[in-house]
Amino acid sequence: MTVLDTVPSAALLLAVGVLFATGVYLLLERSLTRVLLGFMLLGNGVNLAILVAGGRAGAPPITGPDTGTEPMSDPLAQAMILTAIVITLALVAFVLAMAYRSWQLHGHDEVQDDLEDTRIAQLAERDAPSYADSDALESRVTLDEEAATVRDEVALPDPGPRRRPISPTDGGGGDT
Amino acid sequence: MNPWSVQTLVPLPVLVPLFAAGLALALHRYERAQRIISVTALSVVVAAAAGLLVAARDAPVVIDVGGWAAPVGVNLVADPLAALMLLVSGVVLLCVLLYSMAQGIADGGGRAAPAVQDSEAIRRILEAQDPDADEARRRGVLPVAIFHPTYLILAAGVADAFLAGDLFNLFVGFEILLAASYVLLTLGGTVERIRAGSVYVVVALLSSIIFLLAVGLTYAATGTVNMAQLAERLPDVEPGIRLGIQALLLLAFGIKAAIFPLSAWLPDSYPTAPAPVTAVFAGLLTKVGVYAILRTQTLLFPRNEVVEVVLLVLALATMLVGILGAVAQDDVKRLLSFTLVSHIGYMIFGVALATAASTAAAIFYVVHHITVQTALFLVVGLVERRTGTTSLERLGGLAALAPGLAVLFFVPTMNLAGVPPLSGFLGKVGLLEAGVLDGSALAWVLVTGSVVTSLLTLYAVIRAWNKAFWQPAPEDFRPPDETRLPWGMIGPTAALVGIGVALTVVAGPLYDYAEHAANVVMGDAVYVDAVFPDGAPRGTGESDDVTSEEGGP
């Protein structure tokens, strides 16, 4: 059995590079839809990289039992790519559903900051204790209540006539 | 081959939950049937894991999936480490499942969640909208009860990751458990969970891509992804390329295990999930990452000083940053999430020292930490059920209000902080001993850091204990009148707390087993011999030309 040339194709490598660069760029965005697109590009880039690892194109991955001398591509790399594609597909479907749910709730699909983290950081700025002992009481709202009243930085001023966001916001848009 | 040999047990922890998940999904209208299926499936997993634990003691049990021999086919390998992890994870999964069934999460989500999510609420809305519709039609639009199937798939993914005999199967195992975890974390789709879920999912997706890239590069460099074959071939790969692959794998697993610079996602996302889900995530998912690091670093790669130093520094940073974060929190769930990050540092400490003694201590510590961390989150779930909050700002006087709960909280917190003679203390002593034996300056710094972290852990949990249980309640603290916690929730929690204590009692044999497991993982020969019994690949599907072509550097 002859083995194909294992020097990778420059065009494929360039494509891998471009897919990675654009994928990483999109992944750095806040909108879930763009993150998703970035993830898909990255996924395709990795799949292409594995294909390159399997040797050059041009031969079938599966041959008959008595074609011993025919050149053959590495079937293992392709099997791994197929599995990866299926997994990526399922995850893309899930993220789409999550982005849609986020849009239902907020009118946009941007990833929010961690409120509790912000609150603790503010406490640190004021040099205040994270909670008072029982003799120094001051009633506080819970995280959920706070989340309900906090101003949504990225909410659209008017989410559109067809559907209003479920989460209570003060309309947003103003700057404080 | 006898069809009922001990090898039959190997695929069971993966296959049984997967089939049960399908069955539970098909029977989603019948809650009782779902419960019976889930409990039976996970009980079978525990039994199989216990069998494997005994069987793997002599030699790792290997099975070729689908009759294709390694390295072309996929094989599952149950060595002592995998079997031990399987047993602990099986027990924890079963306890949390029983707990969640009593809590009533199975048909919806957290009870305080604002959005409409359980089938009863939706049924009421539908009735109000369309009072004339018949029952059959209404049933048709009820959402599918997905908790049980998803939970079982999570169990299958965890088992697959532990048993995987090649890197790609490890990747698939990770994806199975991560996909299930995405669904569990965003269960009900409330505002807070979608926010936390977005961060969690994006971070996990990124780590998966990095992992997949590392698998691809490994394949390009060595022509195989089988771990036993990699253990033979990777030492011959050019050091620069090998270091690159090692770093990529560490990056991918480091995100999953929540090692310091990659840990910020964890305290943000875990606490928002329902209590049982948080418990099982905290107990198991990060430990699967630690397991993957342990497996790849010890088995695949020869010792590398640079990597060890980097890992030691990261372990120290993880411990200290994590525990300082915990000290600042006023929500018990978040406090525990930060201690979780912090204590991952101990396990990485053990892995980074890369001696048989340190690895054994790390394995023992993983077992201890899985049970204790899960038990703590379950207890916090009980506190939340009893009082309606987990904020230290609002809690108080629980020791008088619910003495049983106080005991259930106190024992695992002391265990976590490493108070003698509990198992946390024994694990830490093992790690410190390994560090002192290593003797380098950095190891001594780590030893000091471990002790400081342990003390700070004690400080953090004692603060929580004082405020929530010991001090008089704030004046506006009005716990609901419901005084009886369901036994179905208390039972599994008490069982896990008890197992945590029992680990102390059986620490001798357990530590011996951990040492044995460490020796198997550290000495490539045992693992490789088990997969390739005659010192050579045994498959018929082996393509000698290609492997010899791509095998060398």
Automatic annotation (TrEMBL), chain A:
Subcellular location: Cell membrane
Keyword Membrane: yes
Sorted UniProt keywords: Cell membrane, Membrane, Transmembrane, Transmembrane helix
Amino acid composition bias (Basic and acidic residues), ranges on this chain: 137-154
Region described as Disordered: 127-176
Membrane topology: Multi-pass membrane protein
Superkingdom of source: Bacteria
UniProt keyword annotation of Acetylation present: no
Gene3D superfamilies per UniProt: 1.10.287.3510
GO CC, alphabetical: plasma membrane
A Pfam family reported for this protein in Swiss-Prot or TrEMBL: Oxidored_q2
Segments crossing the lipid bilayer: 6-28, 35-59, 79-100
Principal cellular location given in the protein's record: membrane
Family statement drawn from the similarity comment of this UniProt entry: Belongs to the CPA3 antiporters (TC 2.A.63) subunit C family.
PANTHER family tied to this protein: ANTIPORTER SUBUNIT MNHC2-RELATED
Protein name: Multisubunit sodium/proton antiporter MrpC subunit
Species the sequence originates in: Myceligenerans xiligouense
Lineage: Bacteria, Bacillati, Actinomycetota, Actinomycetes, Micrococcales
From TrEMBL, chain B:
Keywords for this protein: Cell membrane, Membrane, Transmembrane, Transmembrane helix
Pfam families assigned to the protein according to its UniProt record, in alphabetical order: Proton_antipo_M (PF00361)
GO CC terms of this entry: plasma membrane
Superkingdom of origin organism: Bacteria
Family: Belongs to the CPA3 antiporters (TC 2.A.63) subunit D family.
PANTHER family, per database record: NA(+)_H(+) ANTIPORTER SUBUNIT D1, NADH DEHYDROGENASE
Entry protein name: Multisubunit sodium/proton antiporter MrpD subunit
Organism per entry: Myceligenerans xiligouense
